[in-house]
Amino acid sequence: xxxxxxxxxLVCVVLATCATSSVRADFTFGEPVDLRTVVPxxxxxxxxxxxxxxxxxxxxxxxxxxxxYGDWDFWVLRRPSEDADWGPPENLGVPINSPKEDSSFSxxxxxxxxxxxxxxxxxxxxxxxxxxxxxxxxxxxxxPVNVGSQINGSAAxxxxxxxxxxxxxxxxxxxxxxYGDGDIYVARRETTTDLWGKPANxxxxxxxxYGETQVFLSADGLLLFFADNWSxxxxxxxxxxxxxxxxxxxxxxxxxxxxxxxGPRFNGPAYDWSPRISPDGHTFYFSTALTLDTTTWxxxxxxxIPTVDFNAxxxxxxxxxxxxxxxxxxxxxxxxxxPYAWGDGVVDIQDLKxxxxxxxxxxxxxxxxxx
Length: 371
Known about the structure:
Elements: H1 5-15, E1 27-29, E2 33-34, H2 35-38, E3 47-52, E4 58-63, E5 73-78, E6 90-91, E7 102-107, E8 113-118, E9 128-133, E10 145-146, E11 157-162, E12 168-173, E13 183-188, E14 200-201, E15 212-217, E16 223-228, E17 244-248, E18 260-261, E19 272-277, E20 283-289, E21 297-306, H3 318-326, H4 349-362, H5 364-370
Antiparallel strand pairs: 1-21, 2-21, 3-4, 4-5, 5-6, 7-8, 8-9, 9-10, 11-12, 12-13, 13-14, 15-16, 16-17, 17-18, 19-20, 20-21
């Protein structure tokens, strides 16, 4: 144990006894890598991440790989622990998968229900939203049930994303009365046993005259990802024919702020779509077309990195730790970096854990000396 380690241990002990006290830290996206380099079981030209279970043990993908039942099918990869490698993809089979397109799986926090969209026969419109349930996380999924006419209409209703508390369902709809070619809507309910209320259009600044699609909500419900619609003129401020955007809100009852474009690291001249974020907030997934005709495309992932160099001196060190301590129990957004990279509204032990992890990454020599 060296001199640098002792202050960190002391701080851990002291801060664990401190009282906590409510906005959002900054973060960056790391360099994207081909998803196949991380999960060799996946086919980057046929598979896209749909969602991960909240325990991190299941990865659901939308896939056009051989062996499916229709246009797009759901497959699942499993692993025994978060540190283990993913197993081979398994097709969810009938009746979840159909001869038509089945896509955009969104699993609940408890892993016992999931929403998806499909253009299978028997719906209200060209695409409808369905729900499936299972008794336990080790049981197979049951038969899909259409969520009904309160959500689904004669137009296409797609890309459902359920909030972690199960009380909000964001989705994309081409129904009349919107602002563009496709808009993002949200349906709400008081409890998870209630029926969904009438969907409301998110309105500006999220929705625009240019069309929004492929919505996805972060696990804490505070980040909203979407792509602008490739079939219309690109949303101003983008980099290509379909870009990925992100909006924030301070809490689940607050309005969404103006969306920001994720920039050229994730958006190119062709189509970029299917933004997803892992439940722990550490990894961002997306797909991109390598050609404008979308015949060649790939899936990638990128780390989400909290900003821990609080004094912006180019080093992550004890000076930054002192600043974190001085802001303990406050809602100072600069130091609120955990448990997600964008924080949870209070500077507390979660932020200390994140800081130490990032400090060890920035100081690998010191970390090795500590062992």
